[in-house]
Known about the structure:
This protein is 32% helix and 17% strand. The strands form two sheets. Strands 1, 2, 3, 6 and 7 form a five-stranded mixed β-sheet that branches. The protein is of the alpha/beta class and 171 residues long.
Amino acid sequence: ESLIALINRLVTEQNGERPRKKVFIVAHRANTLKASQENVPENSIENIELAIAAGADMVELDVRPTKDSVLVLMHDESIDRTTNGKGKVADLTYEQILQYDLKRGSVVSKGMKVPTLEEALAACKDKIYVNLDYSPRTATTAQVMSVVKELGMTEQVLFYCNSADKVSEVI
């Protein structure tokens, strides 16, 4: 039984007479089993491509602004865990961040760089839904929405922001 078939069967069993018509498979930080087996870094373009190839319905991506206001994919406040560099995203320019390679665990992926939100969305456009995760500590809704609108992806992106005040900026 495929993973999707198994999930659909379990959801139907749990919901009894009100089965869901669709179960979305979401790749958290664009991670897949293949990506973890091959040490492909989270929140990378390569990970997004693997999630698309695996048949995921959606990728969850984390957004943070750099010191020079470039929106990049990064879950953590610092680049320490996911690159071979050190420092807080907010204290580094995008050019400084590009000096470092992404990594998964201790495995450095030579030449694999922290992508911008624009690059990540372009990789997803017309292929997969996107859940953008940000908060008041990171990017503003206006910043994120600007990139989404610019790429014409408002029907393809879900926003997760843990502050209603931030969402009201663009509504």
